[in-house]
């Protein structure tokens, strides 16, 4: 008999592959401005479930942190580090190295800066920025945009949890933006 973990991995793999196939039908990413960074947005775990069937375990906060890095963009090394952090977080939350590796493989393939999608590396910037370190001015723009986001939203939170479930950061925890 197939274990619950294997069934979950098979289900998630099927959902992930369906998501990759449907990504071909997504509209291209658009920029609201030709210069500067767009306001931060997150869709949780792009084209992948935010949590296991039944809601536990939940790894969406891993994806939101990953979205912050992807929105901000930067170098190829920064992207690699963001993807590794996602894999480690998902493994810690889910207890499944296979699930964590599957998500890691998905973001390594689907998150390339060259892809004109809404979830590519550097999606906060106009398409075509590619992989390069943020200048001091760009770092300031990104920090200011995140501070504006946190003033409006009070916390980084999975979109599916915004209806009242706990936020990513409790009052005792702080992120790099002081929230």
Helix tally? 5
Mean pLDDT across residues: 79
- Our measurement of the CA-to-CA distance between the termini, rounded to an integer number of angstroms, reads 46 Å
Structure summary, number of beta strands: 0
- Could you say which overall geometry the principal axes of the C-alpha atoms support? globular
The largest β sheet comes out as:
none
How much is the radius of gyration in Å?
16 Å
Question: Hey, roughly how much beta strand do the residues contain?
Answer: under 5%
Structural class: mainly alpha
Run of helices and strands: HHHHH
Low confidence ranges: 11-34, 164-175
Helix content: 40-55%
InterPro entries: PLipase_A2_dom_sf
GO molecular function, one term: phospholipase A2 activity
Keywords: Signal
Signal peptide: 1-23
Describe how the helices and strands are arranged:
Elements: H1 4-23, H2 60-72, H3 76-94, H4 97-110, H5 136-153
Helix pairs in contact: 1-4, 2-3, 3-4
Main attributes of the structure:
single chain, 179 residues, mainly alpha, 5 helices
Brief overview, please?
The protein has five helices and no strands. With 179 residues, the protein is mostly helical.
Written overview of the protein:
The longest helix is centred in the first third of the chain and has 20 residues, at 4-23. The protein has helices at residues 4-23, 60-72, 76-94, 97-110, 136-153. It has 179 residues and is mostly helical. It has a domain at 37-161. The radius of gyration is 16 Å and the shape is globular. Helix 2 runs antiparallel to helix 3. The protein starts with a helix and ends in a 26-residue tail after the last helix. Helices cover 47% and strands 0% of the residues. Mean pLDDT is 79; it is low at 11-34 and 164-175. The chain has five helices and no strands. Keywords: Signal. GO terms for molecular function: phospholipase A2 activity. Residues 1-23 form the signal peptide. InterPro entries: PLipase_A2_dom_sf.
């Amino acid at each position: 008999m197939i274990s619950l973990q294997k069934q979950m991995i098979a289900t998630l793999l099927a959902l992930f592959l369906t998501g990759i196939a449907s990504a071909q039908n997504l509209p291209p990413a658009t920029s609201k401005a030709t210069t500067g960074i767009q306001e931060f947005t997150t869709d949780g775990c792009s084209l992948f479930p935010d949590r296991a069937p039944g809601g536990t375990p939940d790894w969406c906060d891993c994806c939101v942190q990953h979205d912050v890095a992807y929105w901000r963009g930067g170098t190829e090394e920064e992207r690699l580090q963001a993807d590794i952090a996602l894999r480690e977080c998902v493994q810690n939350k889910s207890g499944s190295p296979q699930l964590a590796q599957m998500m890691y493989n998905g973001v390594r393939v689907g998150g390339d800066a060259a892809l004109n999608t809404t979830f590519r590396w550097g999606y906060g910037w106009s398409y075509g920025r590619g992989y390069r370190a943020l200048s001091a001015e760009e770092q300031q723009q990104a920090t200011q945009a995140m501070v504006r986001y946190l003033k409006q939203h009070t916390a980084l939170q999975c979109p599916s949890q915004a209806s009242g479930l706990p936020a990513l950061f409790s009052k005792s925890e702080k992120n790099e933006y002081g929230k």
